[in-house]
Amino acid sequence: MARSSHSVERHQHRIQKRARWTRRHMMKKTIGIIGFGVIGQRWAAAFLHAGHDVRAYDRSSTQEDDFRQILPSLLADLDAVHAQTTTEPGEFRMCASMADALAGVDFVQESGPEILEIKCKLLPEIESGVADHVVIASSSSALLVSDMQRDCRLPGRIVLGHPFNPAHLMPLVEIVGGTLTDPASVQVAKTVYEDIGKKPVVMNREMTGHLALRLMGAMWREAIALVRDGVASVEDVDRAFVYGPGPKWTLQGSFISNQLNAAGMEDFLRKYGPTYQAIWDTLLDAKLDEATIAAVTKSTAAAVGDRSQEQLKSEREAGLVSILKGVAEHGAL
Fold it and tell me: How confident is the model at residue 13 (pLDDT cuts 50, 70, 90)?
């Protein structure tokens, strides 16, 4: 059915208002965060550190005290990574209702449970509390935007904005729209994330697992199969990641790193293509059956030793700060 001239005019007006993020993105904004678990809290820290005000809401009322307790350390991590940033942190408010959290916001980051039925109810509820031009981004790690936006009044403003853990530190955010998403909304989300120091990637179409998780999944399937078949232990597989491609890929990614191993990409593919083809032809498959789970669990326990989960997380986040400072200085992407 063709749109009426009045409908087209309203649609164009919404696009123009969304474009103001691009023209005025350095101004302080108010961000609504719906769902305030681990992901929502770390999104809040990232927005606050960039100087934006944050209003948060969660159906559970127990998160605020925990968040205020950890916020200084989250901001300190971000200070260390973004040493050149001198912006005063924004103001945080935990709201008693979704309506209060959404009133007057410029952008919404939804971080509710990873359950499609909940998303399909939650997104229209969020819509009812914000202006028509406001873009709503979901932190979903595996769901498709096309499925989530199906019951929305204005599905064109629904996008995916998927972070990586720990979400306040890791720069990557994956952005993709659904079949009904307005391309202008994708651009707004990209500008929002760039404004807070993230490194967004935009997918041209939806796929389960998005981009980085699919790449990780392909490598991890082979890693699990190698452990299952006794080719190497978890410790040695992880050492191969950390001390092999890890450092170079962290700085320049896989394509540029491989190009530097020859006289350009075409030369690399012609020289080493047969080797990679031989590897691809013999890649292993992994099914997470009971025997595989048991083998991987046992080998992982041996690699972890007596270190606790908290110790491992602390080591990871301290190391990430140092790594990301180096990437910011020397990274090519």
Answer: low
Residue 166, preceding peptide bond in cis (omega within 30° of 0): yes
What's the Cα-to-Cα distance from 66 to each of 51, 63, 318, rounded to whole Å? 21, 5, 20
* Nearest-angstrom CA–CA distance, 125 and 121: 7
Give 92-105 pLDDT, tens digit per residue.
999 999 999 999 99
Pairwise CA distance, residues 52 & 27, whole Å: 8
Distance separating alpha carbons of residues 156 and 7, to the nearest angstrom:
14
Instruction: Work out the mean pLDDT of the chain and round it to a whole number.
Output: 91
Tokens, residue 58: 């969660």
C-alpha–C-alpha distance, residues 34 and 44, integer Å: 10
Tell me the pLDDT tens digit for each residue of 36-57.
Answer: 999 999 999 999 999 999 999 9
pLDDT at 301 over 90: yes
Percent of the chain with pLDDT over 90: 82
Provide the phi-psi class of 51: left if phi over 0, else alpha when psi is between -120 and 50, else beta: left
